[in-house]
Description:
Pfam families: TauD
Largest sheet: 2 strands, antiparallel
Organism: Ditylum brightwellii
GO molecular function: oxidoreductase activity
Order of helices and strands: EEHHEEEEHEE
Cofactor: L-ascorbate
Distance between the termini: 18 Å
Strand content: 25-35%
Number of helices: 3
GO cellular component, one term: mitochondrion
Amino acid sequence: MSCITIVQIFTMVSPAAEGGKSIFADGFAAAERLRIADPTSFNVLCTTVRRYRSIDDATGWHLEARGPVISAVNRKNKEHLWGPVTAIRHNDLDRLPDLPPPPSCGTFDTTWKKEQEEFYEKLQIAHSKWDEILGSDEFRLVMDLQPGDTVLVANQ
C-alpha cells in the first residue's frame, strides 16, 4: 500500500532512560533563511524531487512520498523566482537515494556523466546548507516530553 500521511500523532508513553529529547524545527523559517543566504541551494531544493519510504513490517505500514524538500509557488517557471513556501519535506531517515535527471542530450555519454557529477555536487551543497540551518538553535525547539504528552505533526 502506498499513501501519504496527513497527520502523525506521537504520544509519550514512557521517557527514555537517557536522552530522549524531542527536537522540532520551523521548516518554513529555515527555508526563508536559505532563500536569502543561498538562492542557488534554495532553487536546488525546490526543483529536485526526492523519494521517501517508510516500511514497518510489524505494523504493516508501507508509506511512500515524493517531492522536493521545499515546495514553493513557482513564478514564471524560472530559477530564483519562487513565491511563498507551501510545504517542507525533510526526513533523512526515510529518504531514498537521489536519482539524477535523464541526460539532456538523449544519450549516456561523457556530457551526461558531467551532468550527473554537477547534479550530485549541487545537491550535496544544498543539503549541507539546509542541514546547517536546521541545526541552528535559532530554528529548533528542544523539549522533554512527559508521559501522556501528545504531539501532532501536520504533514502534506
